[in-house]
Structure formats: C-alpha cells, structure tokens
Amino acid sequence: MTSTSRGIDVSAYQPAQDWKALKADGLTFAFAKASEGQKTHDPKFATHIKGIKAAGLIAGAYHFAWPNQSAATEAENYIAAVKAYAGPGFLHWLDLERYSDGRNYKGLSAAQIKAYATVWIAAVKKAFPGQVVGIYTSASDIAAGHVPSGIPLWYPAYPWGAATYARAEAATRPKPSGRTVTFWQFTSTPVDRNIAYLSPSALREWAQGDTDDGDEPKTYTPPKYPTGLAPNKAKPSAVTLQRALKAAGYMAKSVAESPNYGPRTQAGVVKFHNAHPAYRAKGKTSDPAIGPNGWAALFRLAYAK
Description:
With 305 residues, the protein is α/β, with parallel strands linked by helices. It contains eleven helices and nine strands. The protein folds into two domains: 203 residues, Glycosidases (TIM Barrel, Alpha-Beta Barrel), CATH 3.20.20.80; 95 residues, no CATH class. Strands 1-2-4-5-6-7-8-9 form an eight-stranded mixed beta barrel, surrounded by four helices.
C-alpha cells in the first residue's frame, strides 16, 4: 500500500475546528479557502488558517477561480489574502471548477481557461518564490484540457459518498486522463476529507518546494547559483554538482571529478531524484536533468547540517 497522509479542507461553510485534536487523531494537513474572483475574501479564512498553523499541521490555501475575469487581478486578490500566513511549507491551490450554472466559465474556450490558469499560477509563484502552487480540479476539467502540465493536482472524486480514510487509502490511486494526482479529495461527508500520496514526513519535505519543474534539457547547463547554500564560492559546474552529490551520499566518493556531465553524474542525479519525495510524486524519479530548484534542494541536503 502506498504511504499516505490525511487531511481536510474548510471554508466559511465550516465552523472553527479543534485542529490540535484533529492532529492528535492523525491529521497531517489542512487547507482553507482564502479568496474567490477579483475581490472576495473568505470571512473565516483567518480563523481557519491561524488554527491550522498553530496546531503544526501542513497548511495551505485555495482561491476559487473565475476564468472569465482577469487572472492577474484574481492572483493579486489571493496574494493579498494569504501573504500574512504564507511561508516555507505553505501550499497554494487554484480551485478550477465550473459553477453548476457555468457562470464562471461563460464564453470561454478550453484554451482560454488553460491560459487563465497558467497566468494565475505564474503570478502566485512569482509572489511566493519556491513555494508549491497546484490546481484543484475535476476529471472533466482535466479531460477538457483546462489544466497546464507539470502542475501538482488535487483531485476531487467521491465514489462512495461518505467514506473513511482507511477506505480511500486501500483504493487504487485515481489517474484521471492519465494524470498523476498528488492529493485526492474522496468525500465531502461530513467534511471534505483528503489523502495525499506521500507519507507525513515526505509530505512535509515536498511542501518545502524548491524542486525542479522537469523542463531542463538532459545535458548539464549550470543553473543560477543558490544564494547562501554553498560551502564555498565556486561557480556552479559539473564538478560542483559532483561534489554536492558525494556530500549528500548520491555518488561514491571514489568517482573521479570531471568537467563533463557524464553517465556517473547523471546516475547520481537520478539517485537523488529517486530518493526525493517531490520527484516521486511527479513521476520523475528517472530524470537525469537538474535545474536551479533541484540544485538548491541538493545543496541543502549536502551542506545545511
């Protein structure tokens, strides 16, 4: 059985929760609605998110999307709502779902909805560098092509109505339109319950962000140097990468240093990816490419003792 973590999500429709009791009962994460559209803020967001963070749960927030409005303005609305609470380990979600009457999707093509999501995600990533930004969305939205690739997915599907965490954990991991989901919202009764397909410790590490987006070429191009993470002032090079891999235990110390990004260096990067929960969640454990965020994560493992 795949290791999982348990969580819930809340909005103004739910009263204040006893988050410490929920954590003691096995909860690992919780998300709260922060905003909607261009101006609306959820009136209970501050109450919910303060409680979630105070209990030591992995915290996150979501924004309900109106793709037929300005993505930039909606991103600004969300950023303003969460900026006092966001930080390392905070998860950001775009709630991309159609109202039953379609009013928030009215007049848009699939390409336009996808473009809206792309702009919103980019703006939130820019506002909160290194933090995870994902999409909560349905099977129909995924099938319609509304969802950009390479984005963590939080997926709602209720096959049983009311259900226990144990039942969801024993079920097959959903894969809508062949997409890998990181979180599954499996029931809304009596509250929105979710599982994440990472163990609690792996989820905490994944939530720290700073992982590659998978778009780097399969040859080594030195990324921008990660400020404050290096043991010396050497420029990022294949040799510097090899030294970091050795220090983190992903390359044998006996391997000779080389200016080339050869098979042994690539194998070390793959070993790093295979051990890192964020890459496992994204199905990129065999990727030999490493970019700026992966470089930073590797250096933390190697040198931030």
